Amino acid sequence: MAHSNESTISEFVLLGLSSSWGLQLLFFTVFFVVYVTSVLGNVMIIVIIFSDSHLNSPMYFLLSNLSFIDICQSNFATPKMLVDFFVEHKTISFGGCMTQIFLLHSFVGSEMMLLVAMGYDRFIAICKPLHYSMIMNRRLCIIFVSISWAVGILHSVSHLVFTVTLPFCGPNEVDSFFCDLPLVIKLACMDTYKMEIMTLANSGLISLSCFLALIISYTIILITIQCQSSSGSSKALSTLTAHITVVI
Question: How is domain 4-247 classified at the architecture level of CATH?
Fold first, then answer.
């Protein structure tokens, strides 16, 4: 860390997905369609939820926040990637690279925590329906969203605080279309094995924790649905299906 001031790299070269002009045109078309569809679809979800008074339940409030995070994820690197398909020398400044890393891990960490909150919301709605309105109020939803963003930002900062101090004085080519943290770390002029393990453990811990929490909550929900009457289970399953469909 003491050699951080010796960094001489002011920009990184993004190698992209292919050097073939034909493939780059194909990739541009595919990713542009996916990008526009993703952004417009999530914007439409937010507009519908906030314009329809019948959709003011905690589930839809959390879904609107999930859509907002998805919009953020779609914009942290994709616009630059689309432009770079028509640029011969694909470069990004050191600050821009660190910003991409920060935004990516912030959005991903926030989204994973928000998915857990949404799983908890469905758990309360199906397993404790009589207490749902009392437990899942707007204040708790705002707390869930705030915690999601806080965890995402802290998760990202824990990576970035070590990355920005690494000495980058040699190769500067990133074999990707954006600044992927593991690939950037490998370019440092020092042994980064321990840092790579720490980065993997950090990301793996939050991913695995959220994944297990979701699996447990949905397993309990499905067991509860099976134990309900046919009419009650049908209504609960339809609600859960709609929720899972939007999440997917």
Answer: Up-down Bundle (1.20)
- Tokens describing residue 236: 């609960």
Cβ atoms of 185 and 166 within 8 Å: the answer is yes
The DSSP code sequence of 143-166 is HHHHHHHHHHHHHHHHHHHHHTTS
- Give the type of residue at 23: L
Q: What residues pair up with 92 in beta bridges, in sequence order?
A: 12
pLDDT reported for residue 149: 96
Q: What six digits make up the tokens of 57?
A: 């339940």
Residues in contact with 84: Cβ distance below 8 Å, sequence separation at least 6, in sequence order: 14, 16, 90, 177
Gap between the Cα atoms of 212 and 206, Å rounded? 10
So where are the chain's domains?
4-247
Cα–Cα dist 9/188, whole Å: 10
For residues 225 and 233, give the distance between their C-alpha atoms in angstroms, rounded to a whole number: 5
C-alpha span between 112 and 209 (Å, rounded): 9
Rounded mean pLDDT for each run of 10 residues along the chain, 248 residues in total: 57 89 93 96 94 88 94 94 91 94 94 91 86 90 96 92 87 91 90 87 88 86 76 69 70
Listed in sequence order, the DSSP H helices in 52-136 are: 58-75, 78-84, 94-127, 132-135
